[in-house]
Amino acid sequence: MAAKIVTFNLNGREIDVLVKPLTTMQTLLREQLEYFATKSGCRQGGCGSCTILVDGEPMASCLLPVEDVAGKEVTTLEGITPDLGLHPIQEAFFDNYAMQCGYCTPGIIMVSKALLDRNPHPNRREIVEALAGNVCRCTGYEPIIRAVQDAAARMNGQQGGA
Amino acid sequence: MSITNYFQPQSLDEALIFLDEHKDALLVMGGGTVTMPLINEGVSAPEKVMGLKNAGLNYIHQQNGRVVIGATTTLSQVLVEAPLPMLGEAARNTAAWTIRNMATVGGNFFVPPPAGDFATALLALDAELKLVRQGQERFVPVSEFFTGFMANVLQPGELLAEIHVPIPQGQTAFIKFGRKVANTPAVVTVAAHVQFDGALVQAARIAMNAVGPHPVRARKAEEILLGSPLSDEAINTAASTAAEECEPFTDAVASEWYRRKMVKVYVSRVLKNIAGKEG
Amino acid sequence: MTQGKLNAVGQSIKRRDGLGHVTGKTVYVDDVKFRDMLHLKMVRSPVPHARIKGIDFSEAEKVPGFVRALTHEDVPKNTYTILCLIGVGPDEEPVLAEDEVRYKGEQIAAIIAETEEAAMEAVGKVKLDLEELPAVFDVEEALKPGAPILKHWGTNYFVYEGHHCRRVRYGDVEKGFAEADFIVEERYQTSPIEHAPTETTGCVVKPEADGRYTVYTNTQALFFTLDNAALILEVPFNKLHLVGGTVGGGFGGKVDVIVEPITILAAMKTGRPVRYVFMRDEEMRVSSTRGAWRMYYKDGVMKDGRIVARQVTTYADAGAYNRHTPYAVTKHAANAAGPYNIPNVSIDAHCVYTNRQPGSAMRGFAVTPASFALEVQMDKIAETIGMDPWEIRFINAYRNGDMKPHRKVVEDATLIETMQAAAEMVGTELPERLKAMHSNDREGGNHG
To answer: pTM for this structure?
Structure first.
């Protein structure tokens, strides 16, 4: 059984990893690289808690073979979190109580980042559609939607908007 | 038993060579959105897997009055490019953003019911599938592709390479009814294409999903519409007929009883939508 | 009284764990990994009811990475009785099945291996010799003569101090029915509900050099888990060190002690850290649900809206084992008549066993199903006698000083005030008579 070396860009740094065939990005991140922010909720692509960005597009890391990201840019929540302080999206989630148990939060923040990167002024419907693949069992979603609207305002230069 | 090989062919020809060499030991994967969950759960334990994402089957172009879509074009690509309104609508109603970035149009032909909503739109549009083996290709209409539950006419050594969609000459409409607004399996999905000659229906295609072992046409309902002015009365009769002729099933999403009722409602809504567009 | 500067009261306080959540730094059970960690996967019953004739591990043992299997013979005290420490018995659920399985998915044997894949493969190769037995899936069928019996004491119901159900008797319902102008009867049924937390149930156990075991768990009930695990493993309580409190969604679904005892045992037997985390399909099909409830309500009602008699017969589907259901049914019986003052009440609340997935706690625990039934019943009563649904509730609402059917005096009643506030919030103009009612005041109520 041939393990392969795969080279890709992880959170701004080029890395080489050695993986057995069809190892998923989720397994690579959580088992081999100790990047735990990307969660494991269902391993079926149904809950969204494993969401990462590949060339800026949200994807389910539990369904994504590592070999498929060769040469691409992968972003995880660790890549968005600054060494000190918080990204505006994280601040908005924190300030708006947009989480309870926190398990879905990384996946939702990743999708929110992808959304706001391409659509700095999403309306409510666009936010809801973007987040349709993420399951939250605790909050009822309203604080999350408010947080994304607030994050958009912050990123557009307004203080604590929405 | 772990997977010994994950092949990533860089062309259709290379993919066909792998397929002929490894035969049944090779599991073919499009976006992985149906295959990977089964592998993750230990339900599926293939020896070798082939992913088609890099085989150059990822394109949408128009050619001789048809939209030609490569089999590994993702649903997100279809949604963004929206070559036809019905295809954009079907893509938008399938899964969610994250999964659409991975799921392929070809893959939607190999999914268990009640999935398969995109294939349902293609059925309504009289699309044809280009099936390719080494040295040979053939075209099979979507209406002849499925032979039963998770069964189709694809032969060993063949791959689904392309989908050809004639540009519709009439009005189209697509509605998916699920228990949630998005990212949900269908209770029932209806896709229709109706062509008119003056005020009367010249041709009708009504495709339905989640009410049979695979996407199906409501052929008796279609016949009722022919020659009619697509009046409320004709629509009503067609919708009732569609409800009678389908074979819904009970699963965790909905009961057979409820699905059959919803066929009548949604066939009716889709046809009224078309009647409204025609003016 | 000196009033100091208040820092927290009256403020919105940010979550202490919020920073961890938004940065992905909060540590959940699945984020706990050790270099030499083993993986536990469970062999489960494929059928709802069967006698176990034999288990053959020979093919499983050949899987590369297989370490060992555990059966009931390895478990020191093979009994899981969640509330045994407060005297709620009897013992009837095994940690690992002995000679019989009673629900599809029941734990039979644990396989421990070097990798998760090896453990899953080995589980697939275990051969079970089962003699399938007749199964029962409906609560009323389970109580009929001839139904397959699930419990060693010979019945399919929990015995409440010698009785076949939890009983409440207050006044004389037959007399009430005879006096009533209307009789309103209905049958209500709720479905089992799965909590479906985004994080599945699981734990990781690490043997420490000093002989203790550190148990990283996402249980909602750390002390239940500590106590029950120690009793099952027959070790002093101080052998176990539980680390937890970070739960990726519980809702009552993580209050049973299901994964920890067997994982600790695996760590004891192998000397290595062991991980046992449910897959998503195990969480759906095997973990405790909110059990289904069937409820029959029969009410005697006067023309003026007073409910003069309420007879309630309910059947809780506990599934195959007790867990929290016997306690739930007691709580349910205390609430089944609703927050209403009714002079004649009879309640028979049964805890019934079927060959289904065991039920346990979930938000509102035992009262939520009753609320559904009795509030729909109140609307039916309103419809039957031609009265406004608000009014029927105001008239019958209990007041302070009233006696509840299970012989507790009502204190701190606020149903009337809550309904008044709710009506205002939704823009319903209540008649003055109802607006004037008060929980401390019998005026306008059904007390004569």
So the answer is: 0.94
